[in-house]
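Sanity check

After download, print the first record. It should look like this:
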Amino acid sequence: MSSTVRATVVQASSIFYDTPATLDKAERLLKEAAALGSQLVVFPESFIGGYPRGYNFADQSPRGKESFRKYHASAINVPGPEVDRLASMAAKYKVYLVIGVIERDGYTLYCTVLFFDPEGNYLGKHRKLMPTYWERLVWGFEIARQLQFMTLHMENLVRSFVGKIICWENRMPLLRTAMYGKGIEIYCAPTADSGDTWVATMRHIAMEGGCYVLSPIQFCRRKDYPPPPEYLYSPTEEDVTPDSIVWAGGSVIISPHGEILAGPNYEGEGLFTADLDVRGEIPKAKFQFDVVGHYSRPDVLSLTVNNRPLLPVTFTSSPSKIKDDDEIDECKDIYKMGNLGDNLAKVLLQ
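Expected structure tokens:
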């Protein structure tokens, strides 16, 4: 019985500020990947909603604020109608789907990756723990939560654990160790990093974790973003032409031995596919080095992971304890800020 999983990483650009069109493009690419026989398809970081490359979100002028409003409007709620559509795509093409999105939670945005199975079930998400550099001006930080995994169930494979962390989170040794401790076998690493050093990082992680590594990266030209003055590419718009490559791709698939199985490609959009012999090659790699097994020394070095969410606001009283008119009036007084206060009080009393 074969123990292989056919996996595809997608190298393509979003359609910035146009989430419906990006979803259409995602479906076209998913259809192409399914035609290759792929069982697992992984899309780049922030594919739905877009990565604001070259944009100056430190701009607090009216133009900068309007740009953020548009970006916020392009993000998606999780769950929400866009998530439902992605789930239906996974079911239609009978694939496990891992895809990067910009998630809207109230007025805060998160760089998030979503999981779906071939039955069309949304399985969960991972929000980026640590946005990089100027990303911190536009994306929120993930609170502590359980590291999200997806288990592949196939006729030719009893199970395989798939997990993911985003971009430079992969440079965080303790986070990688937490992933290894969860038993990751197919390690998804969508990123915005297109440099040669990224491939070296992915090869190192594959050998360190004894796992397959799949790293999809967008490939974008300036014309894939809105034209000026709607979208001004920094440092100056004059530095680029419509055909200038502003995101060079470099998607790769790496074996547990650090061998490059597909990619990297820096020439354009494309699908890169490889067969992952999970039960055949991972034991061979672990025989040499098992970072959380026979090559660990918990008597000297160990890691504790806090996965209990910490919320900015916690209400300790139960609504059921509000019994009479005096308490209702008191609650309204506390939250009274025009009509907003009354609305909040009504919510608390429901």
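If your output differs, re-run the checksum step. Summary of this record's structure: The first strand starts at residue 4 and ends at 11.
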